[in-house]
């Protein structure tokens, strides 16, 4: 007897359809799985056998062959447990095949027959709706997959429930909080640093990458955290996209679904695969986990040179493509990068109170570790210095400054998307153009640096809802240019 | 122009007389270029990690000396040294680099362009023979040659501690006057030069004073008109970060950034590598 159950398997953030075919025929009792199954799938044999018996079904004392089609595609993970068990039960006539014809099943089995969550439940759910199938999966995943519109989810906590037939579709989309926003750091919590706060606002309004340079303890990390709080609220699609990456990585997607912008701060010992994704099977990296949010790279020059260079292409394209022998995997990575570094190896170059102990050449070598191309992707560079202790003591946090800043940022983004799209140079007022030209001469700006200044000036004009880029916008943008430019 | 090598031995008539008088003159002076540039001049030294203020001072005083035809002697290091050589060169005056390696060796590497220029137009000298690679001790020793070739040593900017002090000590040993340009009391990069003044160095606050001290006659460029702008006045007293400037002037940070951008474009202020702004 034969039976087929539909399921899906992950590649990147997509789940692609796979058919689980079971053939139960007389012969020596063997249980084989074919179709490029990895170790986790091969181990399904023991889990399925035990789970089927524990749930009160019979495991056939016959020759059982399971094929995962399409056979050339590599299959990973434990999500095949449930469909394999169902296919065998259908093939042996213990449950009716017809009931499962329009169902896609995903889930890991415990030896007691319980159905457990697997990574990427959101991806499986999206794939099921696309194929217009019901998704049969673990009851525990309902809170997450409920976010997928138009999904018919049939939750099952143990395969013993299947005896009574296919479970009913659970109630539809789960209501989510409209926008739970609880930034870890509010701008009002930060004393001083007026220029850096303004820089954050510009970075948020133009999705500019930001480089903070300053001695240890000057507040770089706090500023980076505050950026999340002034970015506009995640839209519904952004929530789902962000949650999808977290789901695929096996992390809790619920904060993303609740609208919290991801903030990822990988340690500088992070590997290339950890940063941009990789491994077998491929897993999204920190950069993808920060999709639609902030990727904070503290101690930037301490990151491996390979890791830093791997960031360049995704920073430009907003997507990471990992090319493997089996094919290319794509992970989304639209992030705002906030990088922080000390001005020199000892950290105190330019500190008004503490003498720097580095040789003059060491300072240049330290910042050269980052490499020009990465510097070029940092639109804003800000020097952040330790502030006067008196300011910190006197500082009385206002109710919230991030709220107001977020309002201005949202308005600027709205204005930017509404204004007619044309080249920046046509929006540049003649006086602004003259200012930029004389500044470029006075400070020896490179061509790329001029481009960055223009980009930032455009955003500053957007913050004022100004179609034209005026001299004061260029003047302000000049003060955020990087140091390598001149 | 081909750069000619020359070797001057102590006691020879071409050996610079002012250097021969010093307590510990080099027995042999190796050089590339024109030995006639080794006339008594003004040594200008300062920090390698110079601020725009230090560079501006080096440019001002070296440029003046160059325009008077007085040789400017320095060590071809990055920072103040380099700026002094370039300013003297641009003003058309002779300028001499004294190295701690063979005079035909490009060290520091970043000054290779400058050294090439000096060898073909003026002179690069050293007590190390041709081809000798740089050694740390040689750079301390060469400071006495810088002082010995000069009538006076001008320190434009020095922090604490600073290698510039060794040149100042050498100047005192050689019986040369030490002059120093005062800096802001808040600037760590000027602590060394301010201390030299406290210890008795002659403070130089403008070109006229320097000319008078050296006994050089002639016109002196007039000082610029007094500054009217609040921002420029504040920065003139002390280089500041935008945050501090905004607080000092009681204006918005956005306006401060815009003003600074415009002043920088106009070539009136410069941004330091530590984020402070100062007069150019």
Helix segment count of chain B?
11
Oligomeric state: heterodimer
Largest sheet of chain A: 5 strands, parallel
Shape estimate of chain B: elongated
Structural write-up:
The complex is a heterodimer of chains A (486) and B (280). In chain A, strand 13 and strand 14 (327-332) form a beta hairpin. In chain A, the strands form five sheets. Chain A has a five-stranded parallel beta sheet with strand order 11-12-15-10-16. In chain A, strands 1-2-4-3 form a four-stranded mixed beta sheet. Chain A has a three-stranded parallel beta sheet with strand order 5-8-9, with helices on one face. Chain A has helices spanning 39-42, 44-54, 81-91, 121-130, 142-145, 194-206, 220-230, 236-248, 254-257, 272-276, 286-289, 305-317, 360-368, 372-376, 389-394, 402-418, 424-427, 430-442, 447-463, 471-478; strands spanning 2-11, 14-25, 30-34, 63-69, 103-105, 108-109, 115-116, 134-138, 153-156, 210-213, 263-264, 294-297, 319-324, 327-332, 336-341, 380-383. In chain A, helix 6 packs across helix 19. Chain A is α/β, with parallel strands linked by helices and 486 residues long. Chain A is built from 20 helices and 16 strands. Chain B is an alpha/beta fold. Helices cover 39% and strands 17% of the residues of chain B. Chain B has helices at 17-20, 52-67, 80-90, 112-121, 136-149, 164-173, 191-198, 207-214, 230-237, 242-249, 253-265, and strands at residues 5-9, 28-33, 41-46, 72-74, 95-98, 123-126, 150-157, 177-180, 202-203, 269-271, 277-279. In chain B, helix 5 (136-149) packs across helix 6 (164-173). The longest helix of chain B has 16 residues, at 52-67. The radius of gyration of chain B is 20 Å and the shape is elongated. The mean pLDDT of chain B is 88. The A-B interface holds A 192-195, 198, 213, 343, 349-352, 355, 360, 363, 382-383, 385, 387, 435-436, 438-439, 442-443, 471-472, 474-480, 483, 486 and B 48-49, 78-79, 159-160, 186, 188, 241-243, 246, 253-254, 256-262, 264-267, 270-276.
């Amino acid at each position: 007897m034969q039976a087929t159950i539909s399921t899906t398997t992950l590649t990147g953030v997509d789940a692609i359809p796979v058919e689980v075919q079971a053939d139960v025929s007389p012969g020596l009792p063997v249980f084989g799985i074919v179709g490029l199954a990895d170790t986790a799938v091969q181990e399904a044999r023991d889990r399925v056998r035990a789970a089927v018996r524990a749930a009160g079904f019979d495991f056939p004392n016959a020759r059982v062959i399971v094929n995962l089609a399409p056979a050339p595609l590599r299959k990973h993970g434990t999500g095949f447990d449930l469909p394999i068990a169902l296919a065998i039960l259908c093939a042996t006539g213990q449950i009716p095949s017809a009931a499962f014809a329009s169902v896609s099943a995903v889930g890991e089995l415990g030896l007691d027959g319980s159905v457990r969550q697997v990574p990427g439940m959101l991806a499986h759910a999206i794939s099921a709706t696309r194929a217009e199938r019901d998704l049969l999966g673990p009851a525990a995943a309902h809170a997450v997959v409920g976010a997928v519109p138009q999904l018919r989810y049939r939750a099952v906590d143990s395969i013993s429930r299947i005896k009574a037939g296919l479970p009913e579709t659970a109630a539809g989309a789960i209501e989510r909080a409209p926008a739970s926003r609880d930034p870890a750091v509010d701008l009002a919590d930060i004393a001083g640093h007026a220029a850096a706060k303004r820089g954050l606002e510009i970075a948020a309004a133009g999705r500019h990458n930001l480089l903070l340079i300053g001695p240890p303890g000057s507040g770089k990390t706090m500023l980076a955290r505050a950026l999340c709080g002034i970015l506009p609220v995640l839209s519904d699609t952004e929530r789902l996209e962000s949650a999808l990456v977290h789901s695929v990585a096996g992390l809790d997607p619920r904060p993303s679904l609740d609208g919290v912008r991801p903030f990822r701060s990988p340690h500088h010992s992070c590997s290339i695969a950890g940063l941009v994704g990789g491994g077998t099977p491929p897993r999204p990296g920190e950069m993808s986990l920060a999709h639609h949010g902030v990727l904070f790279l503290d101690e930037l020059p301490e990151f491996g040179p390979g890791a830093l260079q791997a960031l360049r292409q995704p920073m430009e394209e907003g997507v990471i493509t990992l090319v493997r022998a089996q094919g290319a995997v794509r992970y989304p990575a639209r992030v705002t990068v906030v990088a922080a570094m000390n001005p020199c190896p000892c950290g105190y170059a330019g500190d008004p109170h503490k003498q720097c102990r580095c040789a003059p050449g060491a300072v240049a070598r330290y910042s050269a570790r980052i490499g020009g191309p990465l510097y070029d992707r940092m639109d804003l560079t800000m020097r952040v210095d330790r502030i006067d202790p008196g300011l910190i003591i006197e500082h009385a946090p206002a109710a919230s400054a991030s709220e107001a800043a977020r309002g201005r940022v949202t308005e600027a983004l709205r204005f930017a998307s509404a204004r007619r799209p044309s080249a920046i140079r046509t929006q540049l007022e003649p006086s602004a153009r003259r200012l930029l030209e004389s500044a470029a001469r006075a400070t020896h700006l490179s061509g790329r640096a001029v481009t960055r200044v223009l980009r930032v000036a455009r955003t500053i004009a957007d913050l004022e809802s100004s179609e034209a880029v005026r001299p004061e916008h260029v003047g302000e943008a000049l003060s955020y240019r990087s140091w390598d430019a001149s | 122009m081909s750069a000619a090598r020359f070797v001057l031995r102590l006691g020879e008539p071409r050996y610079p007389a002012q250097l021969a008088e010093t307590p510990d003159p080099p027995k042999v002076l190796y050089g590339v270029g024109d030995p006639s540039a080794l006339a008594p001049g003004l040594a200008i030294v300062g920090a390698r990690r110079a601020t725009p203020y230090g560079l501006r001072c080096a440019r001002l005083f070296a440029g003046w000396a160059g325009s008077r035809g007085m040789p400017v002697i320095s060590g071809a290091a990055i920072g103040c040294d380099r700026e002094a050589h370039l300013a003297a060169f641009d003003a058309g005056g002779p300028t001499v680099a004294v190295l701690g390696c063979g005079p035909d060796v490009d060290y520091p590497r970043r000054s290779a362009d400058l050294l090439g220029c000096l060898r073909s137009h003026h002179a690069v000298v050293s007590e190390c023979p041709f081809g000798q690679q740089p050694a740390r001790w040689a750079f301390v020793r060469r400071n006495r040659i810088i002082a010995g070739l000069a009538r006076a040593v001008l320190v434009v900017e020095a922090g604490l501690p600073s290698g510039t002090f060794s040149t100042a000590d050498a100047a005192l040993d050689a019986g040369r006057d030490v002059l120093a340009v005062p800096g802001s009391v808040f600037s760590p990069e000027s602590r060394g030069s301010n201390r030299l003044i406290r210890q008795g160095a002659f403070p130089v606050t403008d070109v006229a004073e320097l000319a008078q001290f050296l006994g050089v006659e002639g016109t002196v460029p007039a000082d610029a008109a007094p500054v009217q702008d609040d921002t420029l006045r504040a920065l003139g007293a002390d280089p500041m970060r935008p945050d501090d400037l905004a607080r000092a002037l009681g204006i918005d940070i956005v306006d401060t950034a815009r003003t600074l951008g415009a002043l920088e474009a106009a070539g009136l202020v410069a941004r330091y590598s530590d984020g402070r702004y100062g007069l150019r």
